[in-house]
Amino acid sequence: xxxxxxxxILVSITFSLYIAIAILSRAGSTKDFYVAGGGVSPLANGLxxxxxxxxxxxxxxxxxxxxxxxYDGSVYLMGxxxxxxxxxxxxxxxxxxxxxxxxxxxxxxxYYSNVARLVAVCCALLVxxxxxxxxxxxxxxxxxxxxxxxxxxxxxxxxxxxxxYAVLGGMKGITYTQVxxxxxxxxxxMVPAIFISIQMTGNPIPQLGFGGTDAQGVYLxxxxxxxxxxxxxAAYTSGSKSTMDVFFITAALMVGTAGLPHVIVRFFTVKKVxxxxxxxxxxxxxxxxxxxxxxxxxVFARTNLIETVSNQPYKEMPSWFSNWETTxxxxxxxxxxxxxxxxLADTAVNELTIDKDIMVLANPEIAHLPNWVIALVAAGxxxxxxxxxAGLLLVISSSVSHDFIKKMIKPDISEKGELLAARLSAVAxxxxxxxxxxxxxxxxxxxxxxxxxxxxxxxxxxxVLGIFSKRxxxxxxxxxxxxxxxxxxxxxxxxxxxxxxxGTQADWWCGISPEGFxxxxxxxxxxxxxxxxxxxPSPPESVQEMVENIRIPAGAGAAHQH
Length: 562
Description:
Blueprint: H1 3-24, H2 30-35, H3 42-53, H4 56-69, H5 74-98, H6 103-110, H7 114-146, H8 151-201, H9 206-209, H10 220-230, H11 243-258, H12 261-264, H13 273-309, H14 319-327, E1 330-332, E2 352-354, H15 359-366, H16 371-409, H17 415-438, H18 444-468, H19 474-496, H20 517-535, H21 541-550
Antiparallel strand pairs: 1-2
């Protein structure tokens, strides 16, 4: 069977499974819709968290990013994995103890202020929309190649599917759907990696294979360094980013992870505080499987790509090349009219343009793997993008219906009315997300990195100070969040979209990239919060007692459950 038939079969089977799960576990109450009734087991929650966490950026874009930027791409590995540890150890158990449905709910109650709640709702919407734009782009990419439609049609198809099971099932449907999606995405990621590792190095473990030798006894990374330098690129294993920028990007991704509303809400779906810790441990294990494999896939894909296309006759290119050309994600322009592909670092003579996001999806085709494996990767990419998109849509809809409508505009709204508002806001959210998927600010991983910067700049200081400082008051938290998010938005729009006079890389402040600027904005947020709260009245006695209560050790937590 050809690739397209296999793709239709595998995508149909996996989607039928997701939709069946969404129907069987559909939400009957707002508690089901927001936190799956609070009764998910730690193992299931660990699987769902890993699927929620590993988006299209992890599955499709991260290995592509590393394969093009080499050593520099490792900041994404360090930041995203380190951030998860930070979240699991520092914040998750305390937030679970507080027992609120959403991050704006925590901020509104901890800072005894509807203004703080409103600022948090705006930040949650901003982070979630930036993040979901990357997911929709990922869905469009997969559909455009494997269903042979254009990328915009791909985004529309993705919108309809996400809407169906996010709106119907709520958090309850999404949790069990994500367990299935994790199994699909990890199988789809590992199978081609194991195949190619055996093919290139004889070692079935990709994590060891990419540090091994090929059939000629040459170390794979040395071989790739050589190929890179022949074409005028920097050596694959050398970095070009400044140490400071590497540090700032890693820190922004780490603290951004710890402030991501759709991951934090996962810890409210378990029964008790100890289960929140256990599910964090499980999730870390499941995440590590993919994250330790990504650098290997990057090396295999880059080596195969260069050997397949560089200086080869265009007419003799294998079928995968023309398939990707039709999507517009690979373009060849014969500048010297010799019929051969010149793939070089020098842009004046380079004839080949490749979208970073296609590397994981094209990798099995370049390596001549069986058609069912190529189709499996497509199904895995969709599972990764859809699981995160669904989690984000839930954050958007609960921010609007629970935090904005119920807590601020209409406190006497019925359970049925609130559920309807949540579903309607999910429909609106999908429509906006689809627009950003069709007009993305950057490739998938960079768009997602900006969402992490926004989360770092806004939520992280408010949550940390809210848990660990009794003195922290509403004035400090509001001023800090506003200062952080406004500064991050200014920097991001100036250097990514060219607003406020624009600017090039040479104009970056102290050489810090927009992806790393979240760390600066976060430090500003901390500084403003602490300064303002020290000059304004202390929080009420009841709030200080509540903070004290959250911090009682987890062992004593059973007696203090909400």
